[in-house]
Design brief:
single chain; globular; 268 residues
Length: 268
Amino acid sequence: MSFLDIFTVPFMLNAFIGGLLVSVLLSVLSFFIYVKKWSFINVGISHAAFGGLAIGFFAGINPTLTGSIFAVLVGVLIGYISKKGKIHEDLTIGILLSFSMAFGVVLISFSNNYNSDLFAFLFGNILTITKEDLIYISIFTVFTIGFLLKYFDEILYCCFDEDLAYIGAVNTNFLYYSVITLIAIATVLSIKLVGSILSAAMIILPAAVSSQLTWHYKKIITLSIIFSLIIVSAGIILSFYFNLPSGSTIVILYSIVFFVIVIGKRLF
């Protein structure tokens, strides 16, 4: 089968379109996670989404919908505790992460709807992306980019100095919780691509890779999108031809590129 023949297979075409859309969405959000140093928060959200997915399986409701709602609630809770600082955020994230995973496993053990699809949600299977998923991802990607463009300067201001932004009449609370909500929903939408266990890597690595090459924020975002489009495309093709798990293949490629760039910078 030639390269172009892949696109004649309907589920592969869906996989490519979905993969490229998610690449753009996560790459843009990746910059804000990098600047705010929210990597661990994102890990907490991605693992917490499993509890929401389990609710969907148990109740026979769309798991993406329940996972999104659950992830947003957990993300907002983590953000609230982080802002208030009464309890160290690492402790809170660790507890919520463990609770959500355990809750999901217990709930699924009672569910008659358990099937192999759950494995896809845990470790990702981009080939399960449907046309309905593409519509959700497309709408949310357009909305997210529009929101970030509208409030980009204010969000960037908050990222670097939230107190100063507040004094400067920026609605910091609205932007703070809005960005966390966008990240939570984007994380759930990426689960079909790489799974709930690996989805955090998908949103952390683009900016981590790009920031090794430049410090300018516009160039970081641009490079993140370019890297993601190339790596996700390569990951889908490799997983198709060599019968590999798509999510794991993509994350391994991201990691290889990151370490090659880091080592290359040290040597040259």
